[in-house]
């Protein structure tokens, strides 16, 4: 089972051969600038991640207004846990959250460390 996700691609960044992010996954209320979001184990808990760009931010609004942005869809395969969650299994959701509590995100921090930083 896959899920279709909207992806914004900044073609100017690609044309410049820049190391800046050029792929932005639409997460509803934010964008993820991690080009490997589709394989990130934390892709359902992005709020505190450094790759997360809230749509209300100036950066996201600037991104959305650029003429070089292309809008695409990407099929993202769901893990067995995600499939169960989509089908309404709340116990699986709680289990997935607990399972990922101590798994480091791409910046090296665990979700618990990110949450602790937000609560300071």
UniProtKB/TrEMBL annotation:
Protein name: Site-specific recombinase, phage integrase family
């Amino acid at each position: 089972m896959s899920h279709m996700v909207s992806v914004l691609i900044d073609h100017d960044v690609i044309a410049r051969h820049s190391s800046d992010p050029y792929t932005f996954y639409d997460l509803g209320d934010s964008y993820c600038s991690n080009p490997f979001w589709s394989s990130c184990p934390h892709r359902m808990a992005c709020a505190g991640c450094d790759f997360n760009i809230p749509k209300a931010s100036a950066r996201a609004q600037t991104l959305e207004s650029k003429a070089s942005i292309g809008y695409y869809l990407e099929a993202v395969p769901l893990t067995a846990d995600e499939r169960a969650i989509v089908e309404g299994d709340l116990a699986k959701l709680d289990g997935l959250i607990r399972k990922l509590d101590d798994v480091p995100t791409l910046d090296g921090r665990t979700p618990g460390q990110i949450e602790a930083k937000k609560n300071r």
